[in-house]
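It is worth pausing here to work through a concrete case rather than discussing structure prediction in the abstract. The textbook approach is simple: state the sequence, then state the predicted structure, then interpret. We follow exactly that order.
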Amino acid sequence: MTRSLSEVEATAKKAARGAGFSWGMAEEAAKATRWLCAKGIDGCAELSRLLSIGSHEINRAASLDAGVWQSASGPLCSISLGASMVDHAHDLNADGWQVKSVVCPALLVPFAADIAAKSGQSIAVLGPDFSAVVSGEGLSVNAPMPNSSASLKVQITHKTQLPNVSFTRADPAETAWSVMQNFAHRTYAPATEASRLKGAGAGTTDND
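Step two, the predicted structure:
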């Protein structure tokens, strides 16, 4: 079943919040998910995979030291890392950045696109077995992106990409959509007796 990009973004935001992200980071996750879907990539599958990893198994605090992004322990969360990269976009030079261990690297690509838009340059996300290049509205990916990568390189490139066809609807895998909805449900307040009575209209009075 296809979904509008607005529905994808709204559900992704609630799902990320339900998984423990702050509202600000949940918005970043939602925008990244929507961006991938607009490029014909199942961003919902990527986000559901990330959210399904226990928070104790990944690190949401990334630090940049001498051109290397890393965490104190465990692999990096691609959403938190991507947001930090955008904040440090002015520090990206010809040497690029190294990234030590990140999960769901596809979710980094929308942030690379943001850096490309801000800098007016093409940005490449390079892994051992794949590469993704973003330039303006253009995207080129040479191979399926893995669930995780032990190392990455993010760098400025002279390659340019023509704008891709933009999709206005997403076709997420049903299993991924269900995972997102399950996380989103965690943000809903449990029903109270007062809310149930209010929702019932006539309350407990039987007018028949």
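Step three, interpretation. Residues 34 and 192 are 34 Å apart (CA to CA). The mean pLDDT is 89.
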